[in-house]
Amino acid sequence: MSITFRILYLVYLFAIPIGVNAIEIPMQSIQIDSLIKEKNINSDMTQLELLILYSDALEGKPKDSIQIFKHLAILNADLDQPKDAYVFTEKYISNTLDISILDNGAYSFIEYSDEYKKLENKYLPKIDTLSFLYFYVALIGFFFTIILNFTKNGNRKAKIFIGCFIGAHSLFILDFVIFSSNFQFRFPHAYRMSSSIALLLGPLLYFYFKSVTQNFKFKKNDLVHFIPTLVLILSLIPVYNQTALDKIGLMLQSTNTQKSYDYIIFVLKTISLVFYAFCIWKLQFSDKTIKSINHNSIFSWSKSLFRIHIAYVISYLLYGISAYVVFSSFSSFIYHFQIGAMSIMVIYIAYMAYVQPNIFNNESLSLKERLFSEKYKKSGLTEALSKELKGNLIKLLVEDKVYKQSDINLETLSEKLNTTRHNTSQIINEHFNMNFFELINKFRIKEAKRLLEDDAHGNLNIIDVAYEVGYNNKVTFNKAFKKETSQTPSSFIHAKIKSNSLR
Fold first, then answer.
1. Which one, of 375, 378, 369, lies nearest residue 424 by Cα?
2. 414 neighbors 424 (Cβ within 8 angstroms)
3. Cys-Cys with 341: which of 146, 312, 351, 428 at CB 3.0–4.6 Å?
4. Alpha carbon distance 499, 128 (integer Å)
């Protein structure tokens, strides 16, 4: 087991905020019933005699019956009476919300009984492989949320929207982990932690797609999309303001009011997800102009992201129907499908942010700007200026080697050419018959081949070459190199060595 894995496991296991164990139970001073006092309890009494004594005391309906529930629960557990231990344990917990009773060593005598397993599954923290994997995915999501929201280069609006989108998914996943692992009783303020953002997923993804397909500017009118979320948050404030014990009580005592509230959230979230999925489809994929460039890597990324989102929407609908309409026992099983879809979404976005960061760094993808000559018929760019800009661009690529800058993007290149992004895109499309990314990759790989060919003694590492020509990681470099040369860098080096040995 790697050190990283162990550290994450320890964080998952021990990094739990002050919860129930630190909560002071508001109980009245315990006054043992007169019937018990008359029996003159002493240390010589057997467990069975104590059990009979407390049972008799309970029949008299004393004021301290709650404390007697505790004694009877522990005594029955100690005497290997799991059924009675279960009954009195439930009574004690339902009255006091004190789950720490299960830490008593007496329960070790009934730990293999079905009754104790019911208590364990309901109240005690449990960690399984799937929950740990979900927890790890949530950590990855939060990490890339920070990265995407606090890096200044590129399309800031798009990165904020997609960053918040992945953060929202990560919060839902973390919420699921906490409750499926029974940590909600030690972390009671996690109750309805993700409910407040249930209506936020659709708008965030919609505005992300608007940011990368249009010259989009967020206006005050766009705030209307977030009003449902604001109303939902306001409706949850009374719940969030409750004490930890009150929240535990809500979790243990599911009322019809809570079920109705959950159903309302399900209906509203379903409407929101379906509505914004349609808006995204209409915005991104119904336009014939955009469809004509579906070979573009960024369009492919957007399409994959949208498909995963649709998979999540479908899984959420199936879960909601099974839980709220047909009341199927499979609802908990189906719930894993939507968490799985969320996890795939988080991992996919994180992977693309690492392997192909230019997808997020380009100031505005403006897919329409990537169309070729048909698009530029009405362009104000004269032929003379076009040739001049082409010459300047070649100089930047050949002499200045701007492609070696790892954060180079269309906006930066346009500034160096002292022209607009639109003109730069047109120059690349018309004179080089490719888009910005293809042009940069072409020059990077050409430079990489030169470096590898000049390395007669094989002293260069592949990763060193990748960094030298402008790539941030080996994976992206290998992918681009193979696309350009039909072989990996390693194969290229081996072929060169073999060729030299034959001379």
1. 369
2. yes
3. 312
4. 54
Among the listed ranges 29-38, 220-229, 281-290, which one has the minimum average pLDDT value? Answer: 29-38
Longest dimension (CA), the chain: 110
Structure tokens at 401: 């080697």
- pLDDT tens-digit map of 238-267: 989 998 888 888 887 766 777 788 888 989
For residue 115, the one-letter residue type is E
144 CB-near residues (< 8 Å, 6+ apart): 163, 166, 346, 349, 350, 353
Residue ranges in 151-255 assigned as alpha helix (H): 156-180, 201-213, 227-240, 244-252
In angstroms, the CA 446 to CA 189 distance is 56
Torsion of CA 43, 44, 45, 46, to 10 degrees: 110
In whole angstroms, give the CA distance from residue 326 to residue 497. 67
Q: Do 96 and 30 contact (CB within 8 A), yes or no?
A: no
Q: How far is residue 48's CA from residue 25's CA, in Å, rounded to a whole number?
A: 29
Distance CA 473, CA 463 (A): 7
CB-neighbour burial class of residue 438 (10 A; exposed 0-12, middle 13-18, buried 19+): middle
pLDDT in tens, 8-38: 443 443 333 334 443 443 333 343 444 444 4
